[in-house]
C-alpha cells in the first residue's frame, strides 16, 4: 500500500515526524569550484559518499582532536615513507602537535632512514620488467625505484653500526629502541642539512613514543636478528645485549590511554591510516585495560580511519568503528564521532593534514616519551587496585620454580 | 649470484646503463605541507602510488587537454549528481571549456533535474533503517536522503509535461533530446535564480552534446516509456512521436572523434569518471571508426580514468588504457599519456578540476552541438570513401522488400 | 561500567533476553574438508563473511528461487561471455529453468556470437605488451587473447549480413531483436555441431526474453548504426528499417514483473551478476510500476547480488538491497531474503549454479517471450486502471500538433 | 594504418610469428556445469580473470607444491579462525602434509583457542546495533557473534593459567611459545573429544613451527604483558620469566628457507592468504639471507597469494610476485610460477584446499620444529662462511662495555 499512502502525501507528512529528522541534514548544494578555491573550501564542499566521510574526518580534527585534553594516536600501515609521506605529511602533523603517540610497521621506519641518510628514491613506473630490474640492481615499491646497493645494503650497514652503540645494549621495547635510534638519526639529519625529513628524528625531538608491534618483521628487525646471530656465533652475548621485549610496548601503549582518560580526565582519539597490525595494536589498548587488566574503561572517544579495506572480508583492516565498539575498543556511545573514509591514503592523508594545519592552532607537545616511567607506574597502580584475579595469579606465580 | 654481483657494485654500475634510466625520475622528496599550501602544491607534491597517478592526470590536463586543438570527452558513471558534483565540479569544468562532449548515465541527468527544480537532497547517514525510511517516504542514495513524493514523484511529473512539448515529437538521439531538455531546464534554472546548478542547462548554453548510451535505463527513459504506453493505449501515437534512436548517438559521437582527428588535424582526450556503459560508449568511438566503418584511425590520444574498479575482474570499468590500446581505442604509441588513478571519485574529481582551473586558461567553446549536421556529413563522406564492403551491403539492402 | 556489569555475568544474563537472540545462530563449527567433498558440502560449510553470503545466496536459490511461482531475472555485467561463462554457467542455468528473463550488456551478447561462429578465444596473460599486441593484430580482454581480423572483424561482417534479413526490418526493442538474432544463431550453432555454446541461442530455444538497456553501446549497436549510416548515405531508408526503440524494452520488462506479482500472484527474484546498467535496468521495473505508471506494488521479493563494487562509492553497482528497498525496488519487508556477496564473479557464479543444479529440480520454462503481447496488454490495462494522471496527460497529448 | 595492414590479413599473418605465440593458449571453451560436477572439474573449467588465477594456483599446488622436496610456508592474515577456517580448511591442509611452517597473526591463534576450549561462536549478521551488542555483552567480528564473558574473558583466564606453567618460564621465540601452547591445547582438545578443531594442536602434533611476527599484538601478547606487569608489581620477575624475543623467530624462519634450498637442494613455495605482517614476515626470509646475512640466494620458487588488496596502493599486502622479485624475495626467473588471485579468501581458500586434497597424495611431514637446532646451526655456519662484514662487526661488538 506504499502508493496509496503517498497519494495523500499532504496529510501523511503531518503524521510522520521521523521524516523531518531524516531530512534535517544540510542541503546538498555545494559551491562551484573556482581558480581561487583553497583546501578548506574544497573539503567543506564534499557533501556525500567517501568525500563526505573525508570532510567529517577533517571536521573531527578541527573540532575534537584539536582540544588540549585529547591525546591523539596515529597508526600507519602500508609503504607510506617510501612515497615521501614522512616529510610531506606526517612530520608537519607531528610538528603541529597532533601526534602524541605513533604505531607503525617496522618497514615504514626502515624506509624513513633513507631520507635521513640522504639516499635517493625515484619516481618511476609500475609497468616495468622486474627480472630486468633485479638484474640491474634496482628495487621497486609499486612505482618507486631505487638502487639495491646504494639504498638498501648501505642503509642496513649504517643501521647495524648504530645499533652497536652502548645505549642499545639492553632489553627494551620498540618505544625505547626508536628513541635511541631517533636520537642518532636526528644528529645525522641535522648534519646533512636536508631539513626535517625523518619521522623518527621528529618524534625524538618532540618526545613522541613510537611503537612497532611486529619488531622482527622489517629490515630493522632483520638486522637486530643478524647481530644477535653474530653474537651467538662468536660467543659475544654478554656484549651485544639488545633484545626487543614486545610486552613492554603493550603495557606502555596501554598506559598512554589509561593516563589520558583516568588520570587526566581527558579524551583519546586515533587516526588510523590503513589497517594491519599497527591499527590492531593501537586499538587493543582499550581491551588491554578492560579485558586483561580488568580496569573499568570505555574505549577511544574519537576514531578516524582512512583505508581501502572493506568490512565484509572480516579482517581488522577493514573493520569499522561500530564493530570495534562491540569489543570496547571504541566507546559505543560515541560511534557518531568515528569516521571511516574509503579513499586512497596518498590522496586523503595529505588533505586531512593540510585541512588541520589550516583550521587549528598548534597543540602543545605532551612529550609522553619523557613521562614513560610515570605512566607505567600509574598503570601498575590501577591494575593492582582493580584486578580481582591478582591473588590467584600471584599464588600460581610464586609456585613456579 | 645476485649477491656476488652486487658486491662489486662500483664496476657493475659502469656496465649497467639501463640502471640510470630506471633511476632518472624525480627524487621522492616532497615539501612539507604548511597552513598556506594550495591545491596545486598539494597535488604536485604527490610522488607515488595513486596520489602520483592523480598528479599525472592533473599534469595531463595542464599540458595536453588545455591545448586548443584537443577535443575533450567527459564520461560520468555512478551517482555523481545526487552528491552535488554537478554544481561543484562538472559545471565549472564545462564553463572552463574543458568538456566538448559528455557521456553519462541517464540517472545522473535525471538527478540533475532536482537541482534545477530547486528540490532539496540532504546529507544523511548510510546507517539507517531502510524499511523505516520507506515507510516514511524517504529515499536514500548511500548517505543522501530525500523525499519520495516531493523529489522523485514531482520531478517525474514535471518531466512528463516538458516531454509533451512539440519540439520533442520526433525520432531523435539522446544528443538532441538532452538539447531540448537542457533548453527547458535552463529557463527554469534562470527563473529560480539558484545560480548554475544543472549540468543539462550548462551543456545547453555552451553547445555541448550530451549522450546516454542506455536511454531506457533511468527515470528519464522510464517516463518516455510511460508516455509511449499512454499514447499506445489511447491511440495517440500520431501525436506523441518521441522515440529515442540509439544509432543516431553512435554515429554522432563517432563523428566528433573523426572530425577532430581527420578533418581538423587535432587530438582527442577522454576524462573517464568511473566506468560502466558511459565509459564504454565514449571509448567505442575509435573502434566504430576503424572496425565498423573501416576508416583508418589510431584511437584516442589522451586518457584519464578515475575509478575504483580493478582490471583483474575482466570488466571494462576497470580495464586500463593499455588494454584499450589492443582494441585501437587508445593510440598504442601514446600509452604513457594515459593515466588511471584508483581514487574515490568524490575526492579525486574535485581536485582534478580545481587543479585545472588554477593552472590553465579557459578554452574556447567548440560548440559541437551546433555543428552536428556538418560532423555527420563528414562521417558519411569518410565512410563512403574508405569502406570496402559498401558494394556488398548496398546490394543486400536493395534486395530487401 | 562495562566491566563491573560483566563481573556479575551470571545474574546479568538472566535479565538479558536479547543476548540469547544474538547468539541463536548456528555454531561456527564447520566440517573438515576431505578429498571426497562435493560442491554442496563445501558451500554449506562456509560460515561467515563473504563465504557465508555465498552460502546464503545458494540457499535462496534452493529454497526460494526454485519455486514454480517465482519469476527469475538474471542480469549480467562485465565481460563474462569472453571468459566462457556462457557455455559453462549461464546456459546450464537457463536449461535448468532458472532464468525467466535476462538483462545484459550488449558486449556480452556480441562476444557470445564468437562461440556460435566457432571462432577461438585463448587463455593468455594480462602481463603482455599491448602496443606489440596491436601491431600483431591481437586483441586482449584482461588475460584472454584473440585475433582482431578473424574474430572481431569477421564477427562484425557476419552480423551485418544477418541484420539485413527481412525479419529485422522494423522498429523493435532489443527483446525482439535478440529473438531474431537468437534464431539465426541457433541455426548456426546447430550446423557447427559445437554443442550449446551461445546464450542467445539457448534463450531463443527456451522463449526467454533478453534485454540490453544500452542498445547503442557495444559492437552490435555499432553495426546497426553502421548500416543505418549506409542506408542514409544511399537513400535506402525505406529498405533498411531496423530501429531499436528502448521504450519498448522498458515496458516489456516491467510487464514481466507486473504479470508475475499482480496477475499470477507469484513472486519475483533477481540474480544480479555485477552491477552497471543491466542491474539498474532490472531493478527499475518496480519503480516503473509504482512511480511512473503509479500501479501499487511492493518490489522484488528476492535479491542475490554478486559484485566487487562497494556501497560507499555511492554508485548503483555497489548499492545493497536495503538501499534498493528505500526506492521500492526491493520489498522492504523482505530485506533478509536479499544477499550481497562480494566475491569475484568468475569463481562465485559457477559455484552458485553448480549448487543450484545439485540441489533443485529443473523448473518448467515460463516462455515469457512467447507471451509478450499478453503481458503488455495486462500492463496497459493496469496502467489505465490505476494511474490518476492519465486525464491530464491525455489532454496535453491531444493538444500536440 | 592499422586498418590497411589488416586488410591484407592473409599475407600479414605469415610474417607475424609472434601472433601465433600469443594465441597458443588453450581455447576458451569450458564444459557445461552439470549436477554431477565436482570441485576439480569446476576449477579446471575456470578459463579467465580471477577464476583463471585460482585455477593456476590449484595447478601449482598439484604440480609443484606436491613434490616431496618442496618446503611450503603458509601465511594467514585476517580473522580466519573465528570464521571456522581452522577446522574446515587449514587443519586438513596441515594433515595432508602441505604446511611445513606457518606465519600467522596472533589474533588467529587466539581465536583458535576458543575452538579447543569448546566455546561457541555463532553465525549472525553484520547489520546489528553495536551499542546494543556491547550493552548485552555480545562481541562481533563482522557477522560472527559471541559472548564477551564466556568466550573472551574465559579464554583469557585459561590462557593465563597455561602460561604460568614451568615450561613457559624462559626467553623464547613465538615458534617455541606456540609449541608449548600447542601441547597444552592438544591435551584439552583430546579431552573435549571435539575432533581436530585447533590449528595450534594440529601444528604441535605434526612438528610444524608457527610464527607470529607481532607477538605483542593480539590478546595472547596482551596477556603475556599482563602477567609481566603483575610480576613487575609484585617483584616476581625471577619466577615469571616468559619473554618473547622476535629475533629468534627472524632467524629460525630464515633457517627453514636456507636449509631447504642450500642444504637439501630443494625448493620453497609460499601460500599467502591475505597480506599484512604475516605475508611480509614470510617473504622477508629471502632478503634476510641475501641482504642481511649476505648469503647468496635466489628467493622463493613458487608463490600463491589470495588477497583482496590491490598493488596500486603501494602496500605489501597487495604487492604482486613480480614486485617481490625486484627485492629478491621471489626468484625473478620464476615469476610465471607465481599467482595472485583477487578472490575473497573465505571462498577461494576452501576451494584451493579441496582441489589439493582431491588431486595430490599426502606428503610426508617434514617436522621442522623438531629440527630447529639443526637448522639454526646450519644458518650460523652459512653466515660465518659468506658474510664479508663479520670482522668489522665483531670488532665493534667486542668494544662494547
Q: Could you characterize what this model shows?
A:
The first copy, chain A, has helices at 2-7, 9-14, 17-22, 39-44, 49-65, 85-95, 106-116, 130-135, 148-163, 174-192, 199-205, 219-233, 246-263, 276-283, 285-292, 321-326, 345-359, 372-386, 390-398; strands at residues 70-76, 101-104, 122-123, 138-141, 144-147, 171-172, 210-211, 243-244, 267-273, 302-306, 338-341. By secondary structure, chain A is α/β, with parallel strands linked by helices. In chain A, helix 6 (85-95) runs parallel beside helix 17. The longest helix of chain A is centred in the middle third of the chain and has 19 residues, at 174-192. Chains in contact: A-B, A-C, A-D, B-C, B-D, C-D.
Please supply descriptive tags for the structure shown above:
51% helix; three-stranded antiparallel β-sheet; homotetramer; 11 strands; disordered N terminus; globular; 401 residues; 19 helices; alpha/beta
Briefly summarize what is shown.
Chain A is an alpha/beta fold and 401 residues long.
Strand content of chain A: 5-15%
In oligomeric terms, what are we looking at? homotetramer
Pair with the most extensive interface? A-D, 112 and 111 residues
- Our count of helices of chain A gives 19
Helix-strand string of chain A: HHHHHEHEHEHEEHEHHEHEHEHHEHEHHH
Q: Sheet bearing the most strands of chain A, described?
A: 6 strands, parallel
Rg calculated over all Cα atoms of chain A: 24 Å
**What is the approximate shape of chain A?**
globular
Q: Can you give the mean pLDDT of chain A?
A: 93
Helix content, binned percent of chain A:
40-55%
What topology, given as strand order, has the largest sheet of chain A? 7-2-1-9-10-11
> Which structural class do you get from the secondary structure elements of chain A?
alpha/beta
The N- to C-terminal Cα distance of chain A equals 76 Å
Low-confidence region ranges of chain A = 1-12
**Number of separate strands of chain A:** 11
Amino acid at each position: 500500500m506504499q502508493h496509496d499512502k503517498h497519494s495523500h502525501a499532504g496529510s501523511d507528512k503531518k503524521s510522520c515526524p521521523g521524516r523531518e529528522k531524516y531530512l534535517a541534514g544540510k542541503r546538498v548544494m555545494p559551491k562551484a569550484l573556482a581558480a581561487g578555491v583553497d583546501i578548506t573550501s574544497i573539503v567543506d564542499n564534499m557533501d556525500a559518499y567517501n568525500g563526505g566521510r573525508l570532510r567529517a574526518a577533517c571536521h573531527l580534527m578541527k573540532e575534537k582532536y584539536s582540544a588540549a585534553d585529547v591525546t591523539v594516536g596515529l597508526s600507519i600501515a602500508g609503504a607510506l615513507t617510501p612515497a615521501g609521506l614522512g616529510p610531506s605529511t606526517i612530520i608537519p602533523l607531528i610538528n603541529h602537535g597532533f601526534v602524541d603517540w605513533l604505531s607503525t610497521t617496522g618497514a615504514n621506519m626502515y624506509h624513513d632512514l633513507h631520507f635521513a641518510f640522504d639516499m635517493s628514491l625515484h619516481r618511476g613506473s609500475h609497468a616495468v620488467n622486474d627480472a630486468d630490474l633485479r638484474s640491474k640492481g634496482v628495487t621497486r615499491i609499486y612505482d618507486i625505484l631505487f638502487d639495491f646497493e646504494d639504498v638498501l645494503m648501505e642503509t642496513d650497514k649504517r643501521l647495524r653500526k648504530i645499533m652497536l652503540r652502548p645505549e642499545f645494549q639492553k632489553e627494551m621495547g620498540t618505544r625505547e629502541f626508536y628513541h635511541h635510534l631517533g636520537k642518532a638519526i636526528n644528529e645525522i639529519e641535522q648534519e646533512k642539512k636536508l631539513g626535517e625529513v625523518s619521522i623518527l628524528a621528529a618524534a625524538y625531538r618532540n618526545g613522541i613514543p613510537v611503537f612497532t608491534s611486529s619488531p622482527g618483521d622489517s629490515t630493522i628487525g632483520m638486522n637486530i636478528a643478524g647481530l644477535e646471530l653474530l653474537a651467538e656465533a662468536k660467543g659475544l652475548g654478554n656484549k651485544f645485549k639488545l633484545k626487543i621485549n614486545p610486552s613492554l610496548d603493550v603495557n606502555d601503549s596501554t598506559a598512554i590511554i589509561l593516563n589520558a582518560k583516568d588520570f587526566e580526565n581527558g579524551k583519546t582519539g586515533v587516526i588510523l591510516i590503513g589497517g594491519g597490525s599497527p591499527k590492531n595494536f593501537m586499538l587493543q589498548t582499550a581491551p588491554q585495560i578492560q579485558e586483561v587488566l580488568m580496569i573499568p574503561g570505555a574505549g577511544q572517544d574519537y576514531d578516524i580511519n582512512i583505508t581501502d579495506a572493506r568490512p565484509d572480508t572480516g579482517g581488522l583492516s577493514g573493520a569499522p568503528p561500530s564493530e570495534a565498539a562491540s569489543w570496547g575498543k571504541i566507546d559505543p556511545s560515541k560511534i557518531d564521532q568515528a569516521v571511516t573514509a574509503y579513499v586512497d591514503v596518498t590522496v586523503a592523508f595529505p588533505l586531512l593534514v593540510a585541512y588541520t594545519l589550516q583550521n587549528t592552532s598548534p597543540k602543545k607537545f605532551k612529550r609522553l616519551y619523557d613521562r614513560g616511567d610515570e605512566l607505567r607506574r600509574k598503570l601498575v597502580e590501577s591494575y593492582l587496585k582493580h584486578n580481582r584475579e591478582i591473588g590467584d595469579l600471584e599464588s600460581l606465580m610464586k609456585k613456579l620454580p
